[in-house]
Amino acid sequence: MTHPGFTRHDDRLWVESLPLDEVAERYGTPCYVYSRAAIEARWNRYRTALGSDADICYAVKANGNLGLLNLLARHGAGFDIVSGGELERVLRAGGEAARVVFSGVGKGTDEIRRALRAGIRCFNVESAAELERIAGVAEAEGTPAPVALRVNPDVNPETHPYIATGLAQSKFGIALDEAEALYRQAADDPRLQVRGIACHIGSQLLSVAPLTEAAERLAALAGRLQEQGIVLDHVDAGGGLGVHYVDERPPSPAEHIEAVTAPLRDLGVAVLVEPGRAIVAEAGVLVTRIEYLKQNGGREFAIVDAGMNDYLRPALYDAAHTVESIAPTSAHCRPVDVVGPVCESADTFARDCPLPAAAGGLLAIRSAGAYGAVMASAYNARPRPPEVLVDGPRSHLIRRRETLDELMTGEASLPED
């Protein structure tokens, strides 16, 4: 499958108008590389499908780089955040607070206060205890807090259990059968302003059926609330659309939007969606260089300079990715295990991957634009990799490589006895 923004010419992998090996030589490896055209193309597919009476709140957790957030803000994006830190990223990138929805199960008092002062669009409330905390902060600030309850529709999203968020046993959301009473409580509380209903059932969804089922349950709840005189101005249907990693065939953005908007059309409210992975995943690759080839136990290993600290998804979810050679080599193609240098057996990017592997060769780990750099760590005291945005024939360093001094900033030795 051809990924947008990336093509092959003369057996070299290109990102827009630049050979990817030239980008690697300029910025070093490992390195995240994104295509601006691919991000904008995906954004435009969502924008066209949604129409005017709707809003796209990009899920910042997927990739919160300031350069990417600024690009999306220029295109009129709203934002879905899950922390005070993500709010600051959105504001520094030029995003509008009035188009921010604040999700997440553990909002702190300081985070709530900052968001309220900034003038966000809505808090997506995850529990009765959180609702009371928000009301208390709003009272202290003298400003009613805009709220929506994130309801848990108990729909099986048919995805990895770590990213399934809409089941009854999940930590996320408020049980559907408890929501009406809590809505009445919120509507009667002068410290709060009820704005809507929110829901998010999971991520990397490869069927729209669970999305439709969840939207139908939201529509039924919204109808009952409207009958009781509770005014809603929006329904936030969440995100979760899957992407292509190896052989997946996910629904299109248009199919995603039709699935969640069709059950909600008669409510007379705006619809919000929160795509993150679906916007940026396929627009990015992790570029890495083979350091060594090694035989062990009848297997051949290509040991690369990227590790699970740089890209956690394969180790965390046992996730499979397409891995391919960036430039021609004289080596013959054969199955190898692509592994990193981190001291964990889980530090594996691909098994039995057919590659013309040679020491010094460059590889691209595809669909790494989401949950990549944003989840990177300094495990094994490895500095975090740079991020580069390519725009036609130009490349922009949107995050430089972390230095060892920066990695140890804030730490101190013990004083002498």
What topology emerges from the helices and strands here?
Blueprint: E1 6-9, E2 12-15, E3 18-19, H1 20-27, E4 31-35, H2 36-50, E5 54-59, H3 66-74, E6 78-81, H4 84-92, E7 100-102, H5 109-118, E8 122-125, H6 128-141, E9 145-152, E10 174-175, H7 176-187, E11 192-198, H8 209-227, E12 234-236, H9 253-261, E13 270-273, H10 277-280, E14 284-296, E15 299-304, H11 313-317, E16 323-325, E17 334-339, E18 348-355, E19 362-365, E20 387-391, E21 394-399, H12 404-407
Parallel strand pairs: 4-20, 5-6, 5-13, 6-7, 7-8, 8-9, 9-10, 9-11, 11-12, 12-13, 15-17
Antiparallel strand pairs: 1-2, 2-3, 4-14, 14-15, 14-19, 16-19, 17-18, 20-21
Helix pairs in contact: 2-9, 5-6, 8-9
Would you mind describing this structure in some detail?
With 417 residues, this protein is an alpha/beta fold. It is built from twelve helices and 21 strands. Strands 4, 14, 15, 16, 17, 18, 19, 20 and 21 form a nine-stranded mixed beta sheet that branches. Strands 5-6-7-8-9-11-12-13 form an eight-stranded parallel barrel, surrounded by four helices. Strands 1-2-3 form a three-stranded antiparallel beta sheet. Helix 2 (36-50) runs parallel beside helix 9, helix 5 (109-118) packs across helix 6 and helix 8 (209-227) runs parallel beside helix 9. The model is unreliable at 162-167 (pLDDT under 50).
